[in-house]
């Protein structure tokens, strides 16, 4: 029984105790199991075989309409109340529940399959002194496991030993923080001695005490106790689940956290049941409709009581027990509840699911969102959120792999005052580089990287001619770095770099004839123009975030000592010899051009050093390096001393390649008034570079605020200063609108009102500052300041912080949010947002598996929102407005008839018409409207992104629009009841034979209703297709075919009680006055609608009206002329991204960093050719929009 309850997440008599400290012992499963730590199995699914049916039904009956129909079904089982059969409700209810259940079951089954694949991966575990292959799910806390090169890390491990010197391992953390550059972890010396000896590892019985499971990726505190000695543990000793082991033959680790306790899973967030804003609004509207239905039924019940009291006594003689007026009124109330329930027919929800499914297929089938390079189509992974795609206000995007390809390419350079990398024609005009442009031939260099691409032939010529400045430039690039080489076989070089930037520069030097071949702690070997040269490495002056530069000091074979330095241009220029002033001015112009194109720039300089000075400096450097106090300050002073009087060589420009079409997509979305925030785990400088490359950050902006303080008060001050600069006259306290929402207005809501800002601003905030800003007492200040900015970039953020930022905007802005990413570090953000989009990229499939929609390239987002999202929203709103119109009109006619039938709950229509009205006669026409309609085609949607704005403002369907629909239905029902009633009252046929009866009136009323609602459908349709025409005319044809069949003599004779309207159709429809009545009612129903729409388009045209008019005037949208991007300059530098922390200079010179034996390593820079941007530039037309009148039918 206990195990059964545990399947439902229940424990018998046990209360969950929060873990305060984790204690485990290596190789002691019995002890570790006693603590009941989680095993290594993960679960991302929502249901299991026991919980699926009850939980899914519980979720579905949270939808108020489903609960209502269940109640209605119970009513229909009472014979005294029901005038309709019970199966008229139970069949559609079961159909709706079954369809939704099948869809939810299918989605959860996919999650189960994914979980099973991960849990059944194999890893070697040390059990009873032997390595055995076990499934991931069977790994326990305290086990020792072996990982091999390119394997995923199984759980959160304490690194014990590795194949590398100094017990180092190299890991890639792309799944955690989006960074693809390798990071170094190091085991304790005492555990490193275990090496790969199974005997030593099996006898290892160290005890670990550490922090409980948490989501801090950058922090770990604990201790290891071994043989009475205690050793401190920090994050440098821990390998986290989700990382990948690279360039390391093997390593052993001790499992500290498993499965749901790992930091990766702690950052993933919960799977939530997402509902659209229209879903939530429909719940509220349905509740109001129930209230309205109860009022109508109460009025009719009171009328019945009065009628029975006044007139019922006249019929008492014919009743067995007489008349009880109050009881009759009570029964009549419930009878009318059943009859008038068509105000919310269950077919509404069936239709909604079909529409959503159909619009999801459009996304799956869209060839313009298919990426042939990876054979990846777009996929709508959920079918319930399509219309929400047309209402997005905020987009939260990851950077690495989402906006960028994370591929760095050497693009341009400036050497001795001359710029290289551009192509000019004979007239000196710049030539645009594309796929067909001739590439430089590097066949003369046997060691050149075949993937390297460059187009300026003049640079190769000057290198080969022996130009000393150009050769010194590339010599610097080949020497000044911390790259590690690997040569699998002769001529096949692979570089392992701290950052892709550094690898790109060393690769450039390699192709231009200066090939970095190998290094030792004391030397660097370079192949210079096919001549092998070995330099003595005297010192590495490493990079850090304060210095923003790095230098190496080398001695050439001739004995010449030279310092080579590269770094941010502002830092280098401050340290130049005065003789370089003219060259510096020319280089600055080139740097401005490069920065204007969004390239990452770097200045290069050198200096010859006197041997005697060098010997003295080296001695002082050794003393500073071994000092116990103020070591960093002393080293910085020495570096500052020697890095002066430099001679400028030039500058480099590296391109961090964006995905194709990213700037155009961002520009399009900005035109649609969608705000884009970038949330990245990358460093601030790199994030800024991408911001400028994507045109999210621009020189024209009034100011870009940098928030990087390290204390709460300083962060608050920086945020307030930024806000006051943007709104000098603004209030200190935010303007907050308080409201209530939910079914019974029980949910209190606070909405922060947008504040007007003159000018364009942007904000960049780092992870430390963001942690303070997200605190309860400061989150409002962060939100106010951020929402005033055109662009917000949050860098060095954890996955949980990404989700917190999304939740903050959702909480106080009441806007629809979308999160897009490609790695496991984006999963929590994707789950937190209203819509989650996964990019099928280089960082695995975790983001895709957690997403609602997925595709291969960021540029497809504009089509998803501006085309599919906008159309889905438009179609759903039209559907709901029309559906409520036709059903309220249908029901109101019943209501008016109640005053003429003694409030007896008699139906005004034939019972078969009531059954088939929503299922047959009006189902397919409205579905065709909801699946095929579009106001303008996709090209015009791109041409005018402003068309997206109505969805953000909920203009097409809201409480206000619903009220107008009800009023329109009320007017139509009055026309449809009283015009036929007046036309038929006390009249006879044209031959004078029969007086018009109830059955003839019912036929006329229902025929007028059907014609009127179909005309209204035609007025609402903007885009006619063959299917629309077929369904519309086909439904009317089916109606007439059915009534002639059902009202025939044959049906009456076979089923006398079921088809009482014998001969009504042929007797009524051959009368001219019947057809004239249909014509009159149709004209009177449609006339106000046509008049209002004519006046609205004439006097208050919306942007949709204007664009549709323009589309009609220009049947074919002229192709946009190809635009060559204007060349611009910038004083802002896209700074060079070295590493994200202190460099590896000390390890390089220690000798311990180098391998004991050469091992096979994969290439760090396995680039693939990327096609040029396929998306054509868009031209945008601004259409002024006047104030609109209220929505009406």
From TrEMBL:
Record flagged with keyword Kinase: no
UniProt topology in membrane: Multi-pass membrane protein
Keyword terms: ATP-binding, Lipid transport, Magnesium, Membrane, Metal-binding, Nucleotide-binding, Translocase, Transmembrane, Transmembrane helix, Transport
One Pfam family recorded for the sequence: Cation_ATPase
Catalytic activity: ATP + H2O + phospholipidSide 1 = ADP + phosphate + phospholipidSide 2
Residues bound to Mg(2+): 398, 400, 822, 826
Cofactor: Mg(2+)
Cellular localization per UniProt: Endomembrane system; Membrane
Region (Disordered) residue spans: 1164-1193
Family matches, as InterPro entries: ATPase_P-typ_cyto_dom_N, ATPase_P-typ_P_site, ATPase_P-typ_TM_dom_sf, ATPase_P-typ_transduc_dom_A_sf, HAD-like_sf, HAD_sf, P-type_ATPase_IV, P-type_ATPase_N
Annotated Polar residues bias: 1164-1184
Domain P-type ATPase C-terminal: 848-1102
Transmembrane portions of the chain: 84-102, 284-307, 327-350, 879-900, 912-932, 961-981, 1001-1019, 1031-1055, 1075-1095
Active site as annotated: 398 (4-aspartylphosphate intermediate)
Molecular function in Gene Ontology: ATP binding; ATP hydrolysis activity; magnesium ion binding; phosphatidylcholine flippase activity
GO biological process: Golgi organization; phospholipid translocation
EC number in record: 7.6.2.1
One Gene Ontology cellular component: trans-Golgi network
Similarity section: Belongs to the cation transport ATPase (P-type) (TC 3.A.3) family. Type IV subfamily.
Stated name of the protein: Phospholipid-transporting ATPase
């Amino acid at each position: 029984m206990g195990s059964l309850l545990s399947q439902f997440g229940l424990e018998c008599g046990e209360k969950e105790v929060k873990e305060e400290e984790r204690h485990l012992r290596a190789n002691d499963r019995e002890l570790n199991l006693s603590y009941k730590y989680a095993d290594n199995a993960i679960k991302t699914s929502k249901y299991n075989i026991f919980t699926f049916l009850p939980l899914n039904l519980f979720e579905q009956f949270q939808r108020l309409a489903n609960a209502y129909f269940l109640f209605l079904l119970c009513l229909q089982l009472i014979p005294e109340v029901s005038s309709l059969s019970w199966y008229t409700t139970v069949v559609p209810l079961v159909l709706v529940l079954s369809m939704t259940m099948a869809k939810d079951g299918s989605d959860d089954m996919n999650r189960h399959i994914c979980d099973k694949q991960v849990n059944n991966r194999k890893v070697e575990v040390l059990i009873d002194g032997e390595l055995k292959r076990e499934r991931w799910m069977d790994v326990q806390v305290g086990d020792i496991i072996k990982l091999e090169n390119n394997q995923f890390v199984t759980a959160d491990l304490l690194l014990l030993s590795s194949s590398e010197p100094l017990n180092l391992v190299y890991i890639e953390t792309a799944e955690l923080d989006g960074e693809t550059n390798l990071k170094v972890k190091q085991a304790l010396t005492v555990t490193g001695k275990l090496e790969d000896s199974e005997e030593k590892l099996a006898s290892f019985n160290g005890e670990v005490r550490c922090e409980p499971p948490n989501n801090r990726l950058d922090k770990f505190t604990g201790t290891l106790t071994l043989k009475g000695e205690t050793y401190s543990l920090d994050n440098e000793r821990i390998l986290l689940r989700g990382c990948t082991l690279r360039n390391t033959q093997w390593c052993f680790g001790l499992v500290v956290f498993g499965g749901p306790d790992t930091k990766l899973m702690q950052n993933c967030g919960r799977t939530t049941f997402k509902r659209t804003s229209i879903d939530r609004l429909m719940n509220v509207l349905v509740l109001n409709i129930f209230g309205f239905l109860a009022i109508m039924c109460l009025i009719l019940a009171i009328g019945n009581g009065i009628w029975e009291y006044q007139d019922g006594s006249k019929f008492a003689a014919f009743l067995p027990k007489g008349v009880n007026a109050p009881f009759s009124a009570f029964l009549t109330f419930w009878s009318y509840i059943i009859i008038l329930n068509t105000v919310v027919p269950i077919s509404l929800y069936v239709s909604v699911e079909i529409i959503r499914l159909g619009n999801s297929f459009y996304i799956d089938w869209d060839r313009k969102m298919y990426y042939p390079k990876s054979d990846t189509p777009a996929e709508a992974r959920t079918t319930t959120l399509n219309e929400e795609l047309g209402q997005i206000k905020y987009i939260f995007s990851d950077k690495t792999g989402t906006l960028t390809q994370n591929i760095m390419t050497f693009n341009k350079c400036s050497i001795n005052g001359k710029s290289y990398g551009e192509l000019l024609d004979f007239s000196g005009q710049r030539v645009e580089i594309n796929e067909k442009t001739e590439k430089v031939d590097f066949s003369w260099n046997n060691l050149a990287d075949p993937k390297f691409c460059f187009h300026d032939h003049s640079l190769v010529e000057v290198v080969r001619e022996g130009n000393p400045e150009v050769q010194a430039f590339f010599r610097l690039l080949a020497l000044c770095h911390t790259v590690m080489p690997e040569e699998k076989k002769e001529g096949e070089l692979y570089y392992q770099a701290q950052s892709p930037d550094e690898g790109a520069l060393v690769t450039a030097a390699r192709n231009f004839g200066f090939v970095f071949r190998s290094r030792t702690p004391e030397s660097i070997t370079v192949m210079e123009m096919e001549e092998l040269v070995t330099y003595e490495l005297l010192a590495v002056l490493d990079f850090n975030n304060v210095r923003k530069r790095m230098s190496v000091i080398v001695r050439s074979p001739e004995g010449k000592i030279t310092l080579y330095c590269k770094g941010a241009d502002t830092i280098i220029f401050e340290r130049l010899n005065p003789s370089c002033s003219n060259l510096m001015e020319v280089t600055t112009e080139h740097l401005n051009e490069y920065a204007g194109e969004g390239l990452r720039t770097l200045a290069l300089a050198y200096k010859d050093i006197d041997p005697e000075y060098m010997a003295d400096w080296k001695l002082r450097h050794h003393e500073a390096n071994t000092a116990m106090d103020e070591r960093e300050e002393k080293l910085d002073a020495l570096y500052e001393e020697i890095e002066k009087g430099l001679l400028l060589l030039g500058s480099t420009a590296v391109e961090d390649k964006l995905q194709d079409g990213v700037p155009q997509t961002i520009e399009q979305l900005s035109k649609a008034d969608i705000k884009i925030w970038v949330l990245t785990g990358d460093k601030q400088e790199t994030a800024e570079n991408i911001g400028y490359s994507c045109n999210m950050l621009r020189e024209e902006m009034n100011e870009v605020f940098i928030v990087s303080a390290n204390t709460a008060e300083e962060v608050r001050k920086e945020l307030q200063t930024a806000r006051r600069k943007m709104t000098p006259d603004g209030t200190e306290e935010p303007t907050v609108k308080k409201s209530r929402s939910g079914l019974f207005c029980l949910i209190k809501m606070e909405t922060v009102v947008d504040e007007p800002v003159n000018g364009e601003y942007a904000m960049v905030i780092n992870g430390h500052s963001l942690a303070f800003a997200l605190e309860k007492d400061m989150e409002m200040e962060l939100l106010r300041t951020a929402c005033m900015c055109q662009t917000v970039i949050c860098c060095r953020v954890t996955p949980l912080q990404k989700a917190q930022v999304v939740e903050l905007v959702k909480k106080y802005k009441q806007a629809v949010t979308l999160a897009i990413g490609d790695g496991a570090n984006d999963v929590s953000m994707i789950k937190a947002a209203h819509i989650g989009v996964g990019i099928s990229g280089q960082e695995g499939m975790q983001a895709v598996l957690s997403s609602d929609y997925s595709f291969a390239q960021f540029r497809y987002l504009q089509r998803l929102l501006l085309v599919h999202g906008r159309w889905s929203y438009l179609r759903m709103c039209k559907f709901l407005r029309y559906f409520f119109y036709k059903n309220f009109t249908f029901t109101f006619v019943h209501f008016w008839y109640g005053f003429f039938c003694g409030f007896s709950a008699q139906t005004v229509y034939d019972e078969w018409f009531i059954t088939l009205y929503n299922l047959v006669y009006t189902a397919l026409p409205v579905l065709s409207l909801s699946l095929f309609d579009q106001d303008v085609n996709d090209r015009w949607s791109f041409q005018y992104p402003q068309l997206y704005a109505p969805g953000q403002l909920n203009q097409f369907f809201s409480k206000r629009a619903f009220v107008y629909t009800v009023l329109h239905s009320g007017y139509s029902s009055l026309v449809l009841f009283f015009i036929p009633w007046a036309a038929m009252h006390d009249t006879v046929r044209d031959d004078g034979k029969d007086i018009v009866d109830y059955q003839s009136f019912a036929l006329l009323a229902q025929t007028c209703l059907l014609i009127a609602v179909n005309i209204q459908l035609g007025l609402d349709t903007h885009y006619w297709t063959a299917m629309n025409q077929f369904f519309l005319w086909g439904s009317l044809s089916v109606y007439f075919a059915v009534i002639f069949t059902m009202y025939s003599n044959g049906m009456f004779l076979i089923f006398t009680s079921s088809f009482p309207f014998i001969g009504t159709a042929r007797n009524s429809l051959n009368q001219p006055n019947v057809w004239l009545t249909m014509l009159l009612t149709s004209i009177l129903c449609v006339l106000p609608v046509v008049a209002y729409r004519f006046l609205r388009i004439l006097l208050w045209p919306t942007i949709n009206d204007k664009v549709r008019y323009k589309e009609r005037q220009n049947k074919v949208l002229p192709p946009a002329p190809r635009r060559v991007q204007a060349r611009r300059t910038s004083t802002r530098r896209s700074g060079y991204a070295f590493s994200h922390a202190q460099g590896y200079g000390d390890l390089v010179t220690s000798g311990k960093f180098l391998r004991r034996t050469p091992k096979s390593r994969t290439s760090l820079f396995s680039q693939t050719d990327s096609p040029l941007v396929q998306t054509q530039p868009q031209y945008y037309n601004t259409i002024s929009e006047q104030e609109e009148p209220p929505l009406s039918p």
